């Protein structure tokens, strides 16, 4: 967190989870209202900055996306460094991505040295017809681990803004 004149906040938020769960599209939907059917690995941009107003204060979130290195299980400690919030994403139509959540949480714990506001995100909830993880399963994992929980769709925009804003608001509550 950086604070200037007691009125400006900048929080780093990271998005983690298996390859192809929709991390990059969640960020592009939130930051630019864009969705890509054939999204390639993120090129160039490491993060996007989004502003929101909380209690009349301008709060900026610097939201980091991986460059696709999660395919090689090689997300580095630099990625996590200084993060105050995290979205841990799985794909509701792919069981293996849900099974990986515990590993991502472990990695996050290993690399963080502060309280991190954490949201479990079941993405692709538009794919109801091929759902593999029930809402209840997601909820109970979140409760067990003390995480916020939300199902989202980067495709049709369901809950995307809400998911990011709950995390940002929680960070703000943690530090103010
Ligand atoms: P990442 O590897 O986690 O960054 O995943 P991407 O954002 O690159 O998305 C992987 C694939 O899933 C792409 O083909 C996206 O178009 C698709 N995708 C991402 N989010 C959604 C979603 O909410 N619904 C559906 N149906 N497809 C999605
Ligand atoms: Mg990506």
UniProtKB/TrEMBL annotation:
It is a lipid-anchor. Keywords: GTP-binding, Lipoprotein, Membrane, Nucleotide-binding, Prenylation. One of its GO terms (cellular component) is endomembrane system. It is found in: Endomembrane system. Its main location: membrane. Signal peptide: none annotated. It comes from the Eukaryota. One of its GO terms (molecular function) is GTP binding. Coiled coil: none annotated. Belongs to the small GTPase superfamily. Rab family. This is Uncharacterized protein. It comes from Spirodela intermedia (Intermediate duckweed). The chain holds residues 1 to 176 of 218 of the full protein.
């Amino acid at each position: 967190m950086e604070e200037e004149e007691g009125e400006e906040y900048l929080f780093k938020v990271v998005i983690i989870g298996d390859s192809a769960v929709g991390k990059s599209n969640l960020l592009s939907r939130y930051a630019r209202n864009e969705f890509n059917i054939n999204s390639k690995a993120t090129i160039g941009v490491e993060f996007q900055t989004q502003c929101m107003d909380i209690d009349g204060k301008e709060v900026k979130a610097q939201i980091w996306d991986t460059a696709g290195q999660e395919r090689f299980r090689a997300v580095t400690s630099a990625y996590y460094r200084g993060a105050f919030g995290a979205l841990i994403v799985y794909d509701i139509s792919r069981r293996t991505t849900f099974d990986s959540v515990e590993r991502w949480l472990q990695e996050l714990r290993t690399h963080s040295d502060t309280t991190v506001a954490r949201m479990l995100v079941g993405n692709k909830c538009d794919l109801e017809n091929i759902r593999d993880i029930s809402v209840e399963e997601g909820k109970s994992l979140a409760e067990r681990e003390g995480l916020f929980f939300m199902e989202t769709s980067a495709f049709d925009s369901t809950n995307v803004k809400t998911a990011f804003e709950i995390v940002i608001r929680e960070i703000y509550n943690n530090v103010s």
